[in-house]
Design brief:
The chain contains 19 helices and 17 strands. With 623 residues, it is an alpha+beta fold.
């Protein structure tokens, strides 16, 4: 069964059970400066899990594009990928465990035909320190579901991974683990949660591939063992608690369900092969690598996996507007492509051939993600350019350092870090360069140099993301409203070619990126500033309306570049008493009620950000 078929089956299954199918959000988070990429299905839905009504209702389902940069170094085994799709369904205060667990069990065993004898479940063992009980309700439900399949499901209390390795399976089917494994909140374990933060127990689903246990991971195997026998394929989070000001926990009035399942991993389980790189979407790329290199997947399996994964991750990010660069998101794309170049050379793919992997990739995803088709030319061009740039760096750029001839001295901690810092050569590639030449690489020393560099950088950017829209503080909310006004003013002064190309709003300032081909003249900046202050004084009301996306577009509402919106959207307008709108934008909020709350608007700086994109920094001051 292909991943495309499984995705469609999942969406249809929950649509039949009253769920609205919502589109995947962009990999670039909207109004969240605290993270570079969307790394889970629930991340774009946090405001709704915290109580904000969703335009599509209280039952939602989708497949969300996700990316985790932390997994870059892990790619090469049979299960880790940087980009992945997360199947998800949510109940916003409606159904709970009694519906969720049977539905997921039915989908896996009925719709997908997974053998229930291969499924193992984990649940929350409780937290005595915070008086949160063991999840006996989920245990009882799961026992019933297995019994209906003729399986007697014993439950075993392991609490920790260490106990799992010590005690093993004990003929169990349902395993209870503690806060480190089966508790979810944005802040981690209950003791780390701030007052007001919601969280709850979760129930994970593991598929047993039946491989022999590798004792190098621990004496005995158990579901959370990393030896490869078990693979987590899904997780139901039951968000039912909130931490109080006193530090205790109380039940939420709105209990939510948040389910996430890795599409690649479920497809691997359905096809009874633990290697996720053999599923349809990734194997299409691997077949092309075999064709171009005249090698077989098994000849250089780690390098095949790295190239396939990194090309896929880079293509999806470029498709969502992230261009290779030396900073933030752009650096992650650059790092992926540079690692792909190195491993393409290991395989013998041939110089300049990475971009030839784009077509089979896009063909595998075009039905689910048509934006890849729309951005095909841009994706190919960026991959071609980045490969050439990196080859130039490797062949010529090294000569720009004092290390004209690579020698053992080139790979001391300081010199290795210089290669990373000045030329952007990732650590694993520097390690490979040393190994190829028979030199040792001071890994520990490199890490120490990197740590020192991080500490300096951290000091330099302290407070950079202080506040931010994620906290919805009053000062940040005011600046968010001002951001709408300044975009509208820029369009009035400079022309309708101006559109937002990104923003970062903290409690101290606005940083707005917008499309414009040249430097903004001082007199034009003054005109923008005056117009924003005029609209503040006109006492405009910030009005929120929900409407079909097509109607919002007819109104001329501005939308953020790279963000994928649903069929029903929220539009915020700044309107005068006659109902005339100065600003109209697709936006979920938050905003002040009236522009008089903002005070005085002041532009601090205007500068270039990238080709065709300018950046404004601005603040609000008290009258």
């Amino acid at each position: 069964m292909t991943s495309n078929e499984i995705r469609e089956k999942y969406l249809h299954f929950f649509k039949e059970r009253g769920h609205a199918v919502i589109p995947s959000a962009s990999l670039v988070p909207e109004n969240d400066p605290t993270t570079l990429f969307v790394g889970s299905g629930m991340q774009p839905l946090i405001p709704y899990l915290l109580g904000q009504p969703h335009a599509m209702g209280s039952r939602l389902v989708n497949s969300q594009k996700s990316f985790r940069a932390d997994d870059i170094e892990e790619v090469g085994d049979n299960r880790h990928t940087t980009f992945f799709e997360m199947l998800g369904n949510w109940s916003l205060g409606e159904y709970f465990k009694e519906e969720q667990l049977p539905w997921v069990f039915s989908f896996l065993t009925g719709e997908l035909g997974l053998d229930p004898h291969k499924l193992y479940m984990t649940v929350f063992s409780g937290d005595s320190e915070n008086n949160i009980p063991k999840d006996e309700e989920s245990i009882a439900l799961l026992k019933r579901l297995f019994k209906e399949k003729g399986i007697e499901a014993n439950d075993v209390d392991l609490e920790t991974e260490e106990k799992g390795y010590e005690l093993g399976m004990q003929e169990g089917r349902i395993f209870a683990y503690g806060v480190k494994k089966n508790w979810w909140s944005r802040s981690g374990v209950p003791s780390n949660m701030p007052p007001g933060e919601p969280g709850g127990p979760d129930s994970e689903i593991f598929y047993d591939f039946g491989t022999l246990h590798d004792e190098s991971f621990g004496k005995n195997c158990h579901p959370n063992c990393d030896c490869g026998r078990f693979m987590e394929i899904g997780n139901s989070v039951f968000m039912e608690y909130r931490k109080t000001e006193s530090g205790s926990f109380e039940k939420l009035t709105q209990r939510n369900v948040d389910f996430g399942a890795g599409l690649e991993r479920i497809t691997a389980a359905v096809n009874k092969d633990a290697d996720v790189f053999k599923i349809d979407t990734l194997s299409a790329v691997i077949r092309k690598i075999e064709e171009l290199s005249a090698k077989k997947y098994g000849d250089s399996i780690t390098s095949f996996r790295i190239v396939a994964d990194h090309i896929r991750g880079a293509a999806f990010m470029i498709g969502d507007g992230v261009i290779p660069s030396n900073t933030e998101r752009g650096y992650i794309v650059r790092r992926l492509l540079r690692r792909a170049v190195r491993h393409a050379d290991v395989i013998g793919l041939g110089q300049g051939n990475l971009a030839l992997l784009v077509d089979p990739l896009i063909n595998a995803y075009e039905g689910a993600y048509p934006e890849l088709v729309e951005q095909r030319e841009k994706i190919v061009q960026n991959i071609q350019e980045e490969e050439q740039k990196f080859r130039t760096t490797l062949e010529v750029g090294l000569k720009t350092t004092s290390l004209v001839h690579l020698s053992q001295a080139s790979f001391t901690a300081k010199n290795s870090f210089l290669l990373f810092q000045s030329l952007g050569i990732p650590k694993d590639i520097i390690r490979d360069l040393a190994k190829e030449r028979g030199f040792s690489f001071d890994e520990e020393g490199f890490d120490q140099e990197f740590k020192k560099h991080q500490e300096v950088s951290r000091t330099a950017i302290a407070g950079r993301f202080k506040g931010g829209l994620a906290d919805a503080s009053y000062e940040t909310t005011k600046l968010h409203t001002a951001n709408h006004l300044v975009l509208a003013a820029l369009r009035c002064v400079l022309g309708e070619h101006v559109h937002q190309r990104g923003s970062n709003i903290t409690a101290e300032r606005i940083r707005l990126d917008f499309s414009h081909p040249q430097k903004v003249a001082p007199e034009q900046l003054q005109e923008v500033e005056n117009l924003v202050n005029q609209k503040i004084e006109e006492s405009l009301d910030m009005m929120r309306e929900e409407m079909p996306k097509k109607d919002a577009m007819k109104l001329g509402a501005e939308m953020e570049f790279g963000v994928k919106y649903g069929d029903v959207v929220s539009v915020y307008s700044a309107k005068n008493k006659k109902g005339e709108a100065f600003s109209k934008e697709f936006c979920g909020g938050p905003h002040v009620k009236n522009t008089l709350e903002l005070g005085n608007f002041k532009i601090i700086k205007e500068e270039a950000n990238s080709a065709g994109v300018r950046r404004i920094r601005a603040v609000l001051k008290a009258e």
